[in-house]
Design goal:
The complex is a heterodimer of chains A (685) and B (83). Among the domains of chain A are: 3-181, Rossmann fold (3-Layer(aba) Sandwich), CATH 3.40.50; 184-241, no CATH class. Chain A has 31 helices and ten strands. In chain A, a hairpin with a 6-residue loop joins β2 and β3. Chain B has a single domain (3-77), classed as Ferrous iron transport protein A (FeoA) (SH3 type barrels), CATH 2.30.30.90. Chain B is built from three helices and five strands. Chain B has a five-stranded antiparallel β-sheet. In chain B, a hairpin with a 6-residue loop joins β2 and β3. Chain B is globular and about 30 Å long. In chain B, 46% of the residues are buried. β10 of chain A pairs antiparallel with β4 (55-59) of chain B, so a sheet runs across the interface.
Chain lengths: 685, 83
Amino acid sequence: MKRKQTWLLAGNPNTGKTSLFNKWTGLRKKTGNYPGITVRKQTGNLPPVGRLQITLWDLPGAYSIHPHSPDEQVVLETLLGRNGPFDGVVVVADVQHLRKNLLLLSEIMDLELPVVLVINMCDEAARKGIRIDTQVIEKEWGIPVLSASAKNHTCDQTANPQTLVDAMQRARQMKARRFFPHYKLETANFRQFIQAHPGINTYRLWLLYTEQKALRGKASGPEKDIPPVESEYNAVKHRLHREVVLRYRDIGRLLRKAHVRQPEMTGSLTEKIDRILLHPVLGILIFLLVMAGVFQAVFTWSAAPMEWIDRQGLHLAMWLRNSLPPGPLTGLLADGLVPGLTGVLMFVPQITLLFLFIGLLEETGYMSRIVFLTDRLLRPFGLSGKAVVPLLSGTACAVPAVLAARTVENAAQRLITMLVTPFVTCSARLPVYAVLIGLVIPQRSWLGGLINLQGLVLMGLYLLGFGMALLSAWILKHFIRPGYPALLIMEMPHYKPPIWRNLFHTLWDNVKAFMLGAGKIIVAFSIILWFLGTHGGERFRQAARQGDPALQLEHSYLGRMGKAIEPAIRPLGYDWKIGIALLSSFAAREVFVSTLSTIYSVQGDGRQSLMEKMRNETDLRTGRHVFSLATGLSLLIFYALAMQCFSTLAVLRQETGSWKWPALVFGYMTGLAYVLSLAVYQFLS
Amino acid sequence: MKLSELRKGEKARIVACGNKLPLKLLEMGCLQGREIQFLYAAPWGSPRYYRMGKDYIALDRALTEHIEIRKIHEAETNLAARR
């Protein structure tokens, strides 16, 4: 019989916890979500030792068991056993920051759980001359202590899984020290609460009592009738502060006994690098350069693989059409499913590259510096410095950008960031802009070609996107209130070279999540669009018999929908053909160009380009050109602002956990687009 | 004096992290007696970058109004260095 155990892996951020998790579990891991929220849950198996199979559960990084963010809330709930049973906790600490890292350990020990302390980065310790007597910690606090390193180093005691598993089993026998009962932090209400629950761990009760707001709404354990904390709010707050002070006192005593010798930090390399990277002028310049470099790379490096995937999709569709008997199933495969899947896979190179760079920025510690530099600038809009990366990533594609918002800790700020990111001009808008600007904006330039009107309009559209994102954030700020205080308190981690294994793991997780999560919905929607575009009533079948694709489209369900919405879009200056393009580009904006080219493909003698056809297109009713300046600008505004990307809606659904937010984004953006396009057209025509 | 009054490069010892401050700040090590040094400020004056004990920490300027400190004078620093 195999025996199974589940152990939690806890620790402060920046302790290298996840590096150790990846090293110990390799690829034997699973990623999921905690129920109801978007904090990701990672579990992995240690290599089996004897008959013992241990599953390790990587908790989000937390400074303390008292939560200050949704991530830390998960840690508290899990430690209280609300996310399932477990056998013990492995706490990871960084040898260079033991004092701060042991705070969480001491709190977990007070819950009377089996605990193993793993002191990480022993290679750094060896290099910097930090010495620590793990035996003293083991004896004083009554827990097994191991030293470890995510890099391969002789000091790593966890290199052999047997040692780790042995320590875990030892922890179950040992009696860890307890601190909380000695702190005498009782208030009147809390004392009553203890008396009502004899035999239950008092620190557990303390957490249930003091964190009842954070824990509210979750299924509760055997403890009932938690007295309200509000009446003693000030007394409790004072005691929570006192708890931290007392814990640090006990940690200080321990570290003195363990003879921890730590080198002086002043004038460290990190400090010297930051003198340049955080310089008010130079720092900002470097930041802009880094960002420009990242987006250049994301754009240019992904172009070739994207084109390749697109071509392979076309080939596959063609091959299917040629080798399968014609019929609805072949149509579904070749015109619905394969293009849909290609549409998903095409984003993979961009997403991979973007996440590679974001991962690099995170791993090296530069991300915290970006937050530092931009925090003040974004704060008036209800965003924090951490929103910079999602907003800038949005210029490539809103899908990875929404995923990148995971780095924003504050739940309200994260939600706002995700909701406004789709305004940023993404790469899918570019082909539409290119066609429309070429069509309606005259080629005029000044200063010997240095300033060009078409370029100015393009830049204006980018600025419009960013401007609307910030404005909308500012509006949302008044409705979405942060649950946790949003003032910046952030550890600035030391700079360090990236650990490639971590980068690889993160990349793989994110790309996989994108393909499975958003992919499903994109495929479903492209099948629906295909069906609507290729099916219709009697007149559609008639057109099909005549072999007239344009007439066919006109009478397809999609075409009829275009006709049906014509009264609504006429005031914006669009006819039913543009209506079809609009409707079909609700799946993805770039479809606009391909739909128009299908519609216009039959007119003329095939020698005219799409642009020429569009330029010559005249309205039968008015006898004027369809693509006038007014219509063109109105369309540009519409494409800049409207929510026309099903992938983004899908990823918003995945990240917020409900259809409510994507629905809001859709209604708000599209409504805004309609009103402003209407204003532009009516003003100009 | 308050932490917000400390000038760039100056060192101080923390006297009190008031009850008004978020618990997180204490957990990050804002404790009585801890040495703190103002290193850099972001453009527009906030947030600020400090060395607190052995850690580097960024704080919104508004928070530094509530942290009581006692400045360490150069003479004192030199004395400590000689010891």
